[in-house]
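Input record, target 12 of the design panel.
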């Protein structure tokens, strides 16, 4: 369509300047004869109307074509962001042990945007532009072959610039991406520890770090942007030089001035469309090269997650994909049948980067409704054991069975039995209600169950004192609440979700004695109704436990009643 519209400009100019061109040009004469016109002016009007009509139709077609390309590309960006977030949420826990959250945020938000705007869009538009360039070159070759070859020879060096500087372009893209990630990390650190930052007075430390990364980011981005306009500037100058030189040579060769007018008309119109197409294509090649680091980051993260899933699956899941287990589409609230006991049978685990085994043939026997305590020094392996029980880490050897059935045939159903209360409760910047019903849509919240969970966690008094009650916003990470209040919201959360097994990992370690007593009372009130696995430094927290296990260097060294084990500590 581009070629047809521009191709009509030459005959129109030739016919307007010399009506006898109808009889001199075989194409015009054929069209004039076939159309049945007897008047030169009528034919000129038709040709002008056809030229204008085709150009307008081309513009409308181009608009809708670009609209479709944008819609397709940004839809792909959204799907890629969702897929990447899903992959991170479903990734094996060991993947996250070696990742900074700033990097993951950067990948989900910024790198997927860069994939869309700096790779997919340029790729699709460059395909369209290359088609236009080839069509226009074909048109020009029909007008003047030698001049067309000269134009092609001029364009090739501009593409050569991208090839020659390809490594530098990639380096600028990598530096910009790394700086962006560092900026997110610095902001997380500075604002995440705002109280410590303010008290220590190290605001300038984070500001200087931020400024250094901003300078690095600005240099990389400005270097690429400056380079990206260089081909267009050169092309404009070279094409104007070519047109002037071509005109002089044409006149010196004593060619017909009318032919020069029509040829220059076609070349001028073609240049108006050719120059942006060539410039945009060169820019697209450059920006795609610049974004290769971002594209690689996303690809290699997805690939690593896939490899970790396969590796973990080969260990204990008979090569079943963990992605299937955690797929939101197949997500099920079904729980593993639990009527009698949980048995940990000779669990052994070693972190991928560790040289020594962290857990060594640990065996536990937990009856339904029992409360067991786990004690040990820091680094003994308590938290690692909890992560294995939670299904976050897959043991190298050993098994966990519930009522005789392994949990690894249906890990999701096992996790649906568990409520986890860590030392630092994760709270979202939302209401108390949304934090207790964590992950439940508003229209599915069970109000009676919510009230029961609040009562059992002894939160009634707190909620009654708040002006907005259960609709009080707790702030980021629960900053507007005390430590004890946050812990009780954590307890209410697991009770609302009706989990049969409660895992408490140092849940009262950071609390003062009075608050710890209140939280412990809420926990003790659940004895017998819930199966509890409790890690605690404060031995008094474990007084109500039916059995206590003492762990040293990844092994169970003693087990028995609270009096039997604690007396030896």
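The sequence produced for target 12 reads:
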């Amino acid at each position: 369509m581009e070629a047809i519209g521009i191709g009509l400009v030459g005959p129109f100019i030739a016919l307007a300047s010399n009506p006898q061109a109808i009889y001199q040009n075989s194409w015009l004469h054929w069209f004039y004869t076939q159309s049945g016109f007897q008047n030169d002016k009528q034919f000129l009007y038709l040709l002008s109307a056809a030229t204008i009509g085709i150009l307008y139709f081309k513009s409308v077609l181009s608009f809708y074509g670009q609209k479709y390309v944008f819609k397709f590309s940004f839809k792909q960006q959204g799907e890629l962001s969702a897929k990447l977030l899903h992959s991170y949420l479903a990734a094996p826990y060991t993947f996250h042990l070696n990742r900074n959250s700033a990097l993951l945020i950067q990948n989900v938000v910024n790198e997927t945007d860069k994939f869309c705007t700096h790779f997919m869009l340029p790729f699709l538009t460059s395909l369209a532009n290359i088609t236009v360039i080839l069509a226009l070159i074909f048109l020009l070759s029909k007008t003047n072959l030698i001049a067309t070859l000269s134009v092609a020879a001029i364009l090739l060096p501009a593409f050569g610039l991208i090839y020659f500087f390809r490594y530098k372009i990639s380096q600028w893209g990598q530096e910009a991406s790394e700086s962006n990630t560092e900026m997110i990390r610095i902001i997380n650190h500075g604002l995440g520890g705002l109280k410590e930052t303010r008290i220590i007075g190290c605001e300038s430390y984070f500001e200087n770090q931020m400024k250094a990364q901003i300078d690095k980011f600005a240099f990389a981005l400005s270097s690429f942007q400056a380079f990206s306009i260089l081909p267009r500037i050169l092309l404009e100058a070279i094409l104007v030089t070519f047109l002037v030189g071509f005109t002089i040579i044409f006149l010196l060769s004593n060619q017909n001035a009318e032919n020069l007018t029509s040829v220059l008309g076609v070349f001028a119109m073609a240049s108006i469309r050719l120059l942006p197409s060539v410039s945009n294509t060169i820019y697209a090649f450059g920006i795609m090269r610049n974004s290769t680091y971002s594209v690689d980051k996303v690809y290699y993260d997805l690939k690593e997650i896939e490899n970790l899933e396969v590796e973990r699956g080969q260990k204990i899941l008979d090569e079943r994909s963990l992605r299937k287990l955690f797929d939101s589409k197949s997500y099920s609230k079904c729980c593993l049948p639990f009527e009698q006991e949980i048995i940990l049978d000779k669990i052994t685990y070693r972190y991928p980067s560790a040289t020594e085994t962290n857990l060594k043939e640990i065996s536990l026997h937990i009856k339904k409704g029992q409360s067991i305590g786990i004690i040990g020094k820091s680094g003994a392996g308590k938290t690692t054991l909890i992560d294995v029980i939670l299904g976050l880490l897959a043991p190298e050897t050993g098994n966990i069975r519930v009522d005789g059935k392994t949990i690894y045939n249906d890990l999701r159903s096992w996790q649906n039995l568990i409520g986890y209360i860590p030392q630092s409760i994760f709270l979202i910047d939302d209401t108390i209600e949304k934090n207790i019903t964590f992950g439940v849509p508003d229209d599915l919240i069970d109000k009676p169950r919510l009230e029961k969970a609040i009562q059992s966690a002894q939160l009634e008094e707190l909620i009654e004192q708040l002006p907005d009650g259960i609709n009080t916003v707790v702030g980021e990470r629960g900053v507007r609440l005390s430590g004890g209040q946050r812990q009780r919201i954590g307890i209410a959360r697991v009770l609302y979700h009706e989990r049969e097994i409660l895992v408490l990992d140092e849940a009262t370690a950071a609390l003062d004695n009075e608050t710890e007593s209140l939280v412990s009372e809420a926990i003790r009130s659940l004895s017998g109704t819930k199966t509890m696995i409790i890690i605690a430094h404060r031995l008094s927290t474990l007084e109500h436990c039916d059995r206590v296990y003492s762990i040293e260097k990844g092994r169970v060294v003693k087990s028995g009643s609270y009096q039997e084990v604690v007396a030896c500590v």
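The domain at 331-566 is CATH 3.40.50.300 (Rossmann fold).
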